[in-house]
Design brief:
Number of domains: 2
CATH architecture of the largest domain: 2-Layer Sandwich
Distance between the termini: 16 Å
CATH class of the largest domain: Alpha Beta
Shape: elongated
Largest sheet: 9 strands, mixed
Helix content: 25-40%
Strand content: 25-35%
């Protein structure tokens, strides 16, 4: 992509309403744009990151047998009344009426809708287990909005739902998802902490959150530095000693990255989702639910992976892998940069080529650091005299010279 054609403008200063680092940097670097309070657009740079996060999640969901679906945002009132969440959902539902005065909710989650769908495919124990997931917009009628993408009214979420004949099968899959979530967050450049949590309005069964320690987080967890055991502070009074290793517990602020729930038969009972067991008797399907908010994950990545100059994107989520920058306007430099750009494109390597003639070297380097692409390649008269290129990793201070013909970039 040529930077002169990229729909993006950087800002020298973040808007006054931005208080935390990730919000400031994502706005300044052109990854997000605020449409209204708690509602954000994703311009091309931000959308590329979002799609990369989405692809990581999709790969890991399919690796555990998940099948992707897409469910309606508009959900009929009757479904939510059956589960008693039409009036009791917290935060309250966004509600709309059609021209026939029929009421719907804008889905903040999809337990009701997925259970209704599952009824069309479950008849016998032979149909179980199976796992359905989607990556889709959700709507939460929050009272307040803070931290940019950390708390919004509209957001993109991956929600996976599992369907089982018994508790043992649910437990086995649930534990597999806990390991899978760790892998997802590692691929996104984060060290997540598995924390016992409350099921809220979703369930009273076993639930875990995945948290990353951060001073801007809205959650509080008791965390053992020795063995990693953790629990959300909302579950009880202050705890001082780890039940696993007897180590001292610290109370830390954290950002919730994902949530896993054992739903049991709460939704299958309310909505009539059952199956015939081996004896021919009807049983309610046992369910699990597993969510990750993509926008919040994106913000958390920036909170953890940054410096004073800007964002430091982990390789797998970065909008581009290489930022190619010629720093002189001579024909020799331009031709060399064009050749390198073309060669990288032929190798299917995602590269942002700063071909802009109206920007100074300082401006180009400052924007490059702000945007945070993993590898910067600089072409100049000085480097070309040595048949070399200047290479710098965004997360390193060291600058290296390498021979042009030895440039090898892994896809």
């Amino acid at each position: 992509m040529k930077q002169s054609k990229l729909f993006a403008k950087t800002l020298k200063e973040a808007p006054k309403e931005a208080k935390i680092a990730s919000h400031k940097l994502l706005l300044r670097a052109g990854f997000i744009s605020q449409l209204a309070s708690g509602i954000y657009s994703f311009p091309p740079l931000g959308y590329r990151v979002l799609k990369n996060i989405e692809n990581i999640i999709r790969e890991e969901m399919e690796a555990v047998g998940g099948q992707e679906v897409f469910l309606p945002t508009l959900q009929p009132k009757e479904l939510w009344q059956k589960t008693k969440r039409w009036e009791n959902m917290d935060p309250p539902l966004f509600r709309v009426k059609d021209r026939h005065k029929k009421e719907f909710a804008l889905g903040p989650t999809h337990e009701e809708a997925i259970t209704d769908l599952a009824k069309s495919g479950i008849f016998s124990y032979k149909d179980l287990p199976f796992y359905l997931f989607q990556i889709q917009n959700k709507f939460r009628n929050e009272l307040r909005f803070s931290g940019g993408l950390l708390r919004t009214r509209e957001f993109i979420m991956k929600d996976l739902y599992s369907f089982h004949t018994g508790q043992k099968d649910l437990d086995e899959f649930f534990n597999k998802i806990l390991l899978t979530y760790n892998k997802i967050f590692q691929r996104c450049g984060l060290k997540a902490i598995k924390s016992r949590a409350s099921g809220g309005v979703f369930t009273k069964e076993k639930t875990y959150e995945f948290q990353v320690l951060s001073e801007v987080g809205e959650d509080r967890i008791f965390f053992c530095q020795k063995c990693g055991w953790a629990i959300n502070a909302e579950l009880g009074a202050d705890k001082k000693i780890c039940p696993d290793c007897q180590g001292k517990l610290d109370k830390k602020k954290s950002i919730e990255l994902g949530h896993t729930f054992q739903l049991g038969t709460k939704y299958s009972r309310a909505l009539g989702l059952n199956f015939q067991d081996k004896k021919g008797q009807n049983q309610f399907v046992i369910m699990g639910c597993y969510g990750i908010g993509l926008g919040r994950l994106m913000a958390a990545i920036v909170e953890i992976n940054r410096d004073q100059k800007g964002i430091i994107w982990p390789k797998e989520v970065a909008p581009f892998q290489i930022h190619l920058i010629p720093i002189e306007k001579s024909q020799k430099v331009k031709k060399a940069a064009e050749n390198i750009y073309r060669d990288l494109q032929n190798k299917k390597i995602e590269v942002l080529y700063d071909d802009r003639a109206d920007k100074s070297i300082g401006e180009k380097f400052a924007e490059s650091d702000l945007i945070g692409i993993p590898l910067r390649i600089v072409v100049s008269e000085k480097t070309l005299k040595q048949d070399c290129l200047e290479i710098k990793k965004r997360n390193k201070k060291k600058v290296e010279l390498i021979k042009i013909n030895s440039l090898k970039i892994a896809k």
